[in-house]
Amino acid sequence: MSTPEKDVAPWSACRTLADLGAVTARWLRGEVQYFPGHNDPTEPPLPETKGLIDVLVDLNGAGYVTTNSQPGQSMTRDGNAQRAFVRGYCTEDTFQRIDAALFGTELIALPRPPGMYHLCPVPVTTVNGKNFTWGGMSSGEPEAIAREFGGALNDTMLGVLTTCWLVDVLDPVWGRTNLLWSKLRKGLAS
């Protein structure tokens, strides 16, 4: 089943990082019903994301276009846990603001400048006591970006993203959620 053109249109119309951030924020708020590249792109944000929507909208409006995020969740008896985590695209200037916001904390940024493939896997989710998902594993290669957005972006937007920094930010403390979001929000609001 193909995706209706009207659902892809907001994404394929993006020409700038600000455009992409605005459409991402609209999806987070439920105004756009499709997010390309997700397992089921017609699904709204996951229930765990509901408490993060306001801060994610703010980050997207401040030039850090988020593509993946999760709150921290403490370890359960069956070995399930999450580190607070977010991945997104930004300019070098925005990365410098993120880096400054994290200074003096335990929070970790895993930046990848344009054109650099950087493999520095850090587990951010465990399921049944085994590492399940990792931060620090994406590249800024054009083909990887096109796949990440399910082929919905135009060549101009893909070209912009290849000039961006791909930055993962994570909290090394399993289950802690507020520190990461408060520091990013404050650092990018200035």
Topology:
Layout: H1 5-12, H2 17-28, H3 53-61, E1 65-70, E2 81-82, E3 85-90, H4 92-102, E4 108-112, E5 122-127, E6 130-135, H5 142-148, H6 155-162, E7 165-170, H7 178-189
Antiparallel strand pairs: 1-3, 2-5, 3-7, 4-7, 5-6
What are its keywords?
190 residues, alpha+beta, four-stranded antiparallel beta sheet, 7 helices, 7 strands, three-stranded antiparallel beta sheet, globular
Catalogue the unreliable spans.
none
**Number of DSSP strand runs:** 7
**Residue-averaged pLDDT, rounded?**
87
How big is the Rg? 16 Å
- Helical percent range? 25-40%
Largest sheet: 4 strands, antiparallel
Overall shape: it is globular
Binned strand content = 15-25%
Q: Give the helices and strands as they follow along the chain.
A: HHHEEEHEEEHHEH
Tell me the strand order in the biggest sheet: 1-3-7-4
The separation of the N and C termini measures 44 Å
The number of helical runs is 7
**SSE class:** alpha+beta
